[in-house]
Amino acid sequence: MNTNVKMTRQEVEEEIKVLEKIFDVVRILDGEFLSKMQENPCVRVQLGMCKCYEFWKKNKPCENCISVKAYTEKRQKTKLEFLDTDIYLVISRYMEIDDEPCVMELVRYLADDTLIDMDGRDKLVGKLKGYQDKLYSDPLTGIYNRRYFEDEIRDMQNPAGVAMIDLDDFKLYNDIYGHDMGDRVLKTVADAINHCIRKTDKLVRYGGDEFLLILPNMVRGTLRGKLLQIQEAIQNAKIPECSRLRLTASIGGVLSENETIDEAIARADHLMYKAKDYKAIVVTECDKKMPDDEETKNKPRIMIVDDSEFNREILSEILQEDYEIVEAESGREALHKLGEYGLGISLVLLDIIMPEMDGFEVLKHMTEEDWISNVPVIMISSEDSENYIRRAYEMGVTDYINRPFDANIVYQRVSNTVKLYAKQRRLMALVT
């Protein structure tokens, strides 16, 4: 199993501080030294580069140097070292620090005059399990951590359901309520998922607010139902000291059969990001309809207000692939459709010069109806005088685009505005 642990020097130094609370010795053996050790075990004595003899009180080369083996096989190796009645757990982890191969060696004293009889064996097993739990447990949530995934799961090829679970708007929770609340959210979500799964299932904190779920021997046809159950449990979870906060998660799931878990994760991750485009949904490869099917796709709705059919057609052509287009050929029709759709309109593209009711009159009515603060307006007009532009901004427009325009610029400014106001609406929903 190739763990391929890659870290920066700074990340390693931070990890060593944590590991030193668990292990008596934590040290890094560089690849150059281990390569020479691999060629000639006596190099320890010859070069005086290693304190193994001094530490283990030996006068000859180690017959089973697992650090050399870990380096050669590019994996983690573990052994017990006995000194009289004292027992040490030795773990050697192959890793790359700033792309340089090396081995992290961890040593832990296990026994206090413990003899390896039946009772001693049970004590030893208990101690080993305790250290393993600490090494592989996420301190915040109590579930498995990323190291466990790297060491034990990545290269598994057993049939299993694989799901990636990502919290929606987690950054907003931290920004609004603080990181302590963010920690409570993560703990609550981990507990909610754990209540839905079997003892044989494995839940891993894969990233900051991303969870990996491995469901061994998941039967085809039941994956989606299980993930929907988990999604509902997350939505119904009560956050300590903030019961009004409602959580949602976007979930992608696949069935892994003739592949490694790592390969299945890549497919599940792709589906999870597809789910995040819509938020709070489950997407699996078993679904008959995917979210990007035209019947189910929930595109943001944009209203184009212009008395020129030609102008409306140009803007529709630019935007229709990613947005649902509503057209209005007059100011009065625009107000009627605003009353009909309300906040179902994500953005208004508004011309100024129109018969009967011009764009400024439309803005005036939107202000009176309190729409302008919730529905962004971008003016698109051939009028480029300072007075027109200043007046438009004073009346609350978000942006002003002059004709003739660049199609790419229009698309990008529309996209940025829609995303900004969508985030603002979610933020207001969280606060209220």
TrEMBL record:
Keyword Chaperone included in the entry's annotation: no
Transmembrane segments: none
Keywords annotated in UniProt: Nucleotidyltransferase, Phosphoprotein, Transferase
Response regulatory domain span: 301-418
Domain of life: Bacteria
4-aspartylphosphate modifications at: D351
Domain GGDEF: 158-286
MF (Gene Ontology): diguanylate cyclase activity
NCBIfam families named in the record: GGDEF
Protein purpose: May play the central regulatory role in sporulation. It may be an element of the effector pathway responsible for the activation of sporulation genes in response to nutritional stress. Spo0A may act in concert with spo0H (a sigma factor) to control the expression of some genes that are critical to the sporulation process.
Protein name as catalogued: Stage 0 sporulation protein A homolog
Species: Anaerostipes amylophilus
